[in-house]
Amino acid sequence: MLAKPFEKPVRVWVGLGFPRQINTVVDAYQFLLGWCGNSPEQKAAMRACKAALAGDVDAGTARGVFVAFARRKSILVEDGTMPPPMAGESPRHV
């Protein structure tokens, strides 16, 4: 099964603060390919996704590394979080 679904989807902020749901290893890998940057976290997440697609690690491992990437980049949607402020914008307070 090429899709390799995550046990629990990962939600990330994209664009102008819209959430996107990542359901599978392939979704995560495609997201990472489109991510502008070349950070160590991005590279690690891409390696983990490739390894999961090759059957070398499970989807849960790839998900964990992807979540670490998203958290480090402040794009992980966690319960009750607001989208990160855009460049030059002051943080929002609720």
Question: Regions with pLDDT < 50 over 5+ consecutive residues?
Answer: 90-94
Report the structural category. Answer: alpha+beta
The gyration radius over C-alpha positions equals 14 Å
DSSP, total strands: 2
Strand content: 15-25%
Largest sheet properties: 2 strands, antiparallel
Helix content: 40-55%
Strand line-up across the major sheet: 1-2
Coarse morphology: globular
Number of helices: 3
For the residues shown, what is the average pLDDT? 88
Oligomer: single chain
Report the span from N to C terminus: 43 Å
Index terms:
94 residues; alpha+beta; two-stranded antiparallel ribbon; 2 strands; globular; disordered C terminus
In short:
The protein is of the alpha+beta class. It has helices at residues 25-34, 40-54, 59-72; strands at residues 5-14, 18-24.
Question: What's the helix and strand layout?
Answer:
Blueprint: E1 5-14, E2 18-24, H1 25-34, H2 40-54, H3 59-72
Antiparallel strand pairs: 1-2
Task: Tell me about this structure.
It is a single chain. The chain is α+β, with helices and mostly antiparallel strands. It is 41% helix and 18% strand. It has helices at residues 25-34, 40-54, 59-72, and strands spanning 5-14, 18-24. It has a two-stranded antiparallel ribbon with strand order 1-2.
